[in-house]
Amino acid sequence: MTDSTQLNPNTPLRIIFAGTPDFAASSLQAVLDKQAVNHYDVVAVYTQPDRPAGRGQKLVASPVKQLALEHDIPVYQPLNFKDEADRKTLAKLDADIMIVAAYGLILPKTVLDTPKLGCINVHASLLPRWRGAAPIHRAVIAGDSITGITIMQMDVGLDTGDMLLKKECDIKPEDTSGSLHDRLALLGGDALIDGLEAIRHGHAKPEKQNEDLTCYAEKLTKQEGEVNWSLDASIISRRIRGLLPWPGAYTQTPSGVMKIHAARLLDTQDQDFECGEITMVSKEGIVVATGKGSILITELQFPGGKRMSVQDALNGKFKEQLQLGKTLGSQE
Q1: Of the residues 72, 93, 133, 240, which has the fewest C-beta atoms closer than 10 A?
Q2: Does the annotation place 128 within a ligand binding site?
Q3: Start and end of every Formyl transferase C-terminal domain (predicted)?
Q4: CATH 3.40.50.170 segments of the chain
Q5: Whether CATH 3.10.25.10 fits 222-322
Q6: What is the rounded distance in angstroms from the CA atom of residue 40 to the CA atom of residue 93?
């Protein structure tokens, strides 16, 4: 985007939207809700190719594609933009601006430079903190008390472009990545509309990111979900919440992997217990000792079973794994 590029606020703003998951669909919905009042014209949607999902592994359209089809918006799903034909198709759309939200592709400079005003990104953190793939999860795991949305002018780096607008969001002590995601998705839509209007009316003030304050939100792995009970309870609690709903936290038992769906931090234990030892069993849950402090597990899931409360689990076939004195986790 350059200062010399000016658009008539009364002329429909030609928009290409690029995104894939629910988070992105919230931003697209915000644009569609305002298109009549703000004179937006979404000329095309770009999203990831349909992926197999479920037990039948049938191809499923992304949430963004589903929303676009509901509104009769043309949908494009290139694997990447290496093919010249895909780049020509993009250019023919003659867009004023391209909005990118959790698209899942790294855009080359040729694509970034195609729209008249370039490409802007709806990023789920307060940049330059948590650049990268999993900013929501990493913020919860790190114990951040605040996060937010940054509307950013995209460049060829990984979330390194100039910041155009920020909106803050508190991280609550009980937040999981799932609950925080839902609030940020809505906030992202609000921030996007404010950002679009600022750009359109020439009020946007690009701000360089402070490279000294950067940190990276690395992609999540399933292996991260295994609980190390020797860590402090506060760290374990944040990891459990930060890894919900995916990949989820889990621990080893003699009956196999036990998934932990809900847990909370307790005060430090009064006695010396082995890390991973079950120190209390009640209808409310099981208390597990850690390197410092305790965790109360309230919902779990055993192999072949469904998600359930601890009370239900104690009435089932896995109750022996949840008895007082039992130790969870890999024992070497």
Answers
A1: 72
A2: yes
A3: 219-317
A4: 13-217
A5: yes
A6: 15
314 annotated to bind ligand? no
Q: How far apart are CA 1 and CA 151, in angstroms?
A: 13
pLDDT in tens, 172-216: 999 999 999 999 999 999 999 999 999 999 999 999 999 999 999
| Other residues' Cβ atoms within 10 Å of the Cβ of residue 58 | 10
pTM (predicted TM-score): 0.94
CA distance 249 to 232: 15
Q: For residue range 56-110, what is the model confidence (pLDDT) as tens digits?
A: 889 999 999 999 999 999 999 999 999 999 999 999 999 999 999 999 999 999 9
Start and end residues for every CATH 3.10.25.10 domain found in the chain: 222-322
Q: Is 127 annotated as a binding residue?
A: yes
